[in-house]
DNA sequence: CCCTGATTCGC
DNA sequence: GCGAATCAGG
């Protein structure tokens, strides 16, 4: 394979989109991520985030050459950094002092009272054992964030996306499947035991 | 271990 | 110019 115009175009587009070199290599086919990275550098777009760099040479810096040790130049960044003093936890949210007796511990459900949450294994009639297995597995979840997921990590969501208490299972997924064993068993049910959906 | 990009250097 | 091997890091 060679770098035809359209292939280079695809490369540029995907790289600009923030795609990884390996993803681009997969898309193009016939090349490895190394090839992609090499090309990216040759094209001079290694910096996904082209910084304006208004003052490129403001530092004469009569640095004496140390060891001829390989490793270019650290390219020190002389950033002034005003640095703001700690503003005393702006994020902190004090408990409403005007709170009588009842505890607001739990957030009010976003969904009123209906039950439009099919993917939740909680209220369904799935293999009781599978459910137990899931609960057990979820204790060992790797608690990955969306961006940490890969093709071989379980993408089963755990918790409420509206709260901080949300993450993805992240355990090794079955090759080809999006979930780990436990979650596959609750995600993919044989058509049999899923009769009527009351309603 | 999985993955990421960066760099080198023989081709 | 190309990209495998390697490096450096998460």
Describe this structure in words.
The chain is mainly α and 199 residues long. It contains five helices and two strands, in the order ααααββα. It has helices at 5-16, 21-28, 33-42, 128-139, 181-187, and strands at residues 157-159, 166-168. It is elongated. It binds a DNA duplex (11 and 10 nucleotides) through helix 3.
Question: In this structure, how is the largest beta sheet organized?
Answer: 2 strands, antiparallel
Within the largest sheet, what's the order of strands? 1-2
Mean pLDDT, to the nearest integer, reads 68
Instruction: Tell me the overall shape.
Output: elongated
Low confidence ranges: 61-106, 114-124, 195-199
Percent of residues in β-strands? under 5%
C-alpha-based Rg, rounded: 26 Å
Class inferred from helices and paired strands: mainly alpha
How many beta-strand segments? 2
Secondary-structure element order, as H and E?
A: HHHHEEH
| Through-space gap between termini | 57 Å
Indicate the multimeric state.
single chain
- Helicity range of the residues? 10-25%
Number of helices: 5
Task: Give a brief rundown of this model.
The chain is mostly helical and 199 residues long. The chain has helices at residues 5-16, 21-28, 33-42, 128-139, 181-187, and strands at 157-159, 166-168.
């Amino acid at each position: 394979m060679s770098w035809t115009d359209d292939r280079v175009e695809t490369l540029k587009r995907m790289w600009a989109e923030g795609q990884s070199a390996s993803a681009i290599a997969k898309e193009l086919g016939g090349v490895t991520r190394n090839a992609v990275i090499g090309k990216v550098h040759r094209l001079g777009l290694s910096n996904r985030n082209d910084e304006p760099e208004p003052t490129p040479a403001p530092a004469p810096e009569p640095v004496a050459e140390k060891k001829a040790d390989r490793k270019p130049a650290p390219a020190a960044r002389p950033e002034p950094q005003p640095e703001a003093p700690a503003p005393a936890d702006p994020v902190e949210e004090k408990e409403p002092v005007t709170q009588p007796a009842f505890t607001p511990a739990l957030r009010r459900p976003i969904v009123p009272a209906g039950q439009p949450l099919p993917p939740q294994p909680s209220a369904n009639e799935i293999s009781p054992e599978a459910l137990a297995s899931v609960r057990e597995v979820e204790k060992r979840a790797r608690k990955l964030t969306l961006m940490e997921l890969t093709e071989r990590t379980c993408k089963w969501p755990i918790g409420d996306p509206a709260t901080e208490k949300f993450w993805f299972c992240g355990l090794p997924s079955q090759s080809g499947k999006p979930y780990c064993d436990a979650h596959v068993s609750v995600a993919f049910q044989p058509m049999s035991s899923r009769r009527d959906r009351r309603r």
